Amino acid sequence: xxxxxxxxxxxxxxxxxxxxxxxxxxxxxxxxxxxxxxxxxxxxxxxxxxxxxxxxxxxxxxxxxxxxxxxxxxxxxxxxxxxxxxxxxxxxxxxxxxxxxxxxxxxxxxxxxxxxxxxxxxxxxxxxxxxxxxxxxxxxxxxxxxxxxxxxxxxxxxxxxxxxxxxxxxxxxxxxxxxxxxxxxxxxxxxxxxxxxxxxxxxxxxxxxxxxxxxxxxxxxxxxxxxxxxxxxxxxxxxxxxxxxxxxxxxxxxxxxxxxxxxxxxxxxxxxxxxxxxxxxxxxxxxxxxxxxxxxxxxxxxxxxxxxxxxxxxxxxxxxxxxxxxxxxxxxxxxxxxxxxxxx
Length: 344
Hints:
Blueprint (H helix, E strand, L loop, with lengths): L11 E4 L3 H12 L4 E4 L3 H10 L15 E4 L2 H5 L4 E4 L6 H8 L8 E4 L12 H8 L8 E5 L4 H5 L4 E6 L3 H11 L4 E6 L2 H23 L4 H21 L10 H12 L4 H10 L4 H6 L6 H16 L4 H11 L4 H9 L11
Parallel strand pairs: 1-2, 1-4, 2-3, 4-5, 5-6, 7-8
Antiparallel strand pairs: 6-7
Helix pairs in contact: 4-5, 8-9, 8-10, 8-11, 8-13, 9-10, 13-14, 14-15
């Protein structure tokens, strides 16, 4: 691991003060970096400034004094060497448009958001590349893998992947983020890493529903396995490396999100399985469950490019067409019989 002295004077801005943004900002701050940290909510900024704690999104975690919170997005985005975006996927475009005038060609842009935009079906770096047209494609990277924010904040040993089309960019981001408890691997498959990080949230909703219906471990294992097949199928159609989906951003993140009670997407699914309605569930949640919006993107994208994704389709039908979980399960289990392995 490179010594922090190699990055002396590195200017880092973090956009987005949810639980994951806060955990990553704190990780970097604890390494000795001074972090300009943008929060949308004034009370979040005030709490971090006064109490060194994000009481809304990451309560109980003492934050480093190297974090400098602000509601001024121009100040946080301007003059940085590395800009980390960790906002919900459905506001990524709006946020990127706000800062596009302050982002320069020599910046490294890292997305740690997981989602697929509803209208365009772009991944998050796809959205950023479209907005930041003046920045070379090799300056973008995506961070993904099995990593609950609270566990990273508690310094639990965590492994994650950073992907970029440029190896130098991936290496740079790897060494900026790596610590003795946060191990970072590089990848050149930014498509696969982002697709894995986004689509696993849809499958996690299905896994949660299975547990909410009290189906047991057989069913959950089947959902994870066949869900991974769907993710791989989609990725291959879009040019991803199939090996990515047996790595950290693929099966690693899928296993975590489908089995961990800290997963917001799993929790949404479990409540749906217990009979609650999606509007009521979301109205009681402080944080975003990305899989709800991504389910629509995955459904429409898979139809457009002709990829069969039956679990994802039924999650979409439950969320948006008011199909009951029980009916969705029956439809999945009575589909035409076939071979297990795909041709590709």
